Amino acid sequence: MQRPMFFKRLLTGRSAVIALPYAWLLAFFALPFLIVLKISVSEMETVHFKDLISYADGIWRLAIKTSNYIFITEDELYIKAYLASLKYAAITTVGCLFIGYPFAYFMARAKAAIQPALLMLVMLPFWTSFLLRVYAWKGLLGEHGWVSEAIIGLGLDNLLLAAGMIPVAGKLMNSPFSLVIGMVYTYLPFMILPLYANLAKLDLRLLEAASDLGATPWQAFWRITVPLSKAGIIAGSMLVFIPCVGEFVIPELLGGPQTLMIGRVLWDEFFSNNDWPMASAVAVVMVLLIIVPLALFNKYQAESQANAGAKS
Q1: pLDDT of 6 over the 60 cut
Q2: What is the 8-class DSSP label of residue 86?
Q3: Strand, coil or helix: 26
Q4: What value does the CA radius of gyration of the chain take, rounded to a whole number of Å?
Q5: Tens-digit pLDDT profile for residues 176-218
Q6: ABC transmembrane type-1 domain: from which residue to which, for each copy (predicted)?
């Protein structure tokens, strides 16, 4: 009688709360990733894949194809696409942080009565189709678009040309500039929301104490507000950087030949070349480029917190 009660308790309460997220990750991340990994090391025959493990004449055979991964390290196209994806994702993350932090700070310091309205303004773009918003930027940055006309009228296109963000003065579309603008605009809410949630919980008495001790508002901001909002900065940066690395729609619609990213390479391998093992290998390497540094960072954070707790 005790054993059924044990399993009943195991499936309820805390165990069930912990099991549900793990089951979700297993079903929708781990298993699909393992399937893609299996395809990446398989040999393709027309529309079928050879079995990795086969048995014939009393002999078990394991056939793993590693040539796709070797080819990725040897072909400049893939290396440049990975580096470009990381570069534009990093630029987008910095741009979102530069714009989003002041806005989140203003929201956290605003009157409680208007904070819901400000929060709604941040979430308002989600009420519109993602594709419509990207297409809108094609019109704004295209020929005779009012944003394009304003930039050219102010002579800022020459600065963008000198910075290598546009290929020709007066042409803003299909350039690194249009790509970055579209990605910053699209992913800015993902930076603002974690920062706002973190800054709204900041104890203002710490700033008052810093002021009483003679710190200027700028010093208090850099020495108190920014360090205490580090968790929000990291969370927002991860929410922006990770999807930006594999972005396909924005580079396709707003970028150009100079902005080849790994998402476009994946599309070509899957649907143009119909080379699923190669495309799967590209996807696996992309996932590892994101997960491995993130796992190492999380491990470092956990060790730092453990050391801080031990010292206290």
Answers
A1: no
A2: H
A3: helix
A4: 25
A5: 999 999 999 999 999 999 999 999 988 888 888 988 888 888 9
A6: 82-297
Comparing C-alpha atoms, which of 204, 189, 12 is closest to residue 96? Answer: 189
Which residues face 44 on adjacent strands? 49
Write down the pTM of the prediction.
0.85
Q: Is 75 left (phi over 0), alpha (psi -120 to 50) or beta?
A: beta
Banded model confidence at residue 3, pLDDT cuts 50, 70, 90: low
Burial class (CB in 10 A: 0-12, 13-18, 19+), 164: exposed
Biggest CA-to-CA distance, the chain: 85
- Which of 214-218, 244-248, 290-294 is least confident? 290-294
The total number of residues shown for the chain amounts to 312
Q: Is 183 exposed, middle or buried (0-12, 13-18, 19+ CB in 10 A)?
A: buried
Q: Which residue has the tokens 């394991």?
A: 62
Strand, helix or coil at 59? strand
Own/partner pairs, 1-7, CB within 8 angstroms, 24+ separation: none
Q: Quote the strand ranges of the chain, DSSP E.
A: 44-45, 48-49, 53-56, 59-62
8 A C-beta contact, residue 255 and residue 177: no
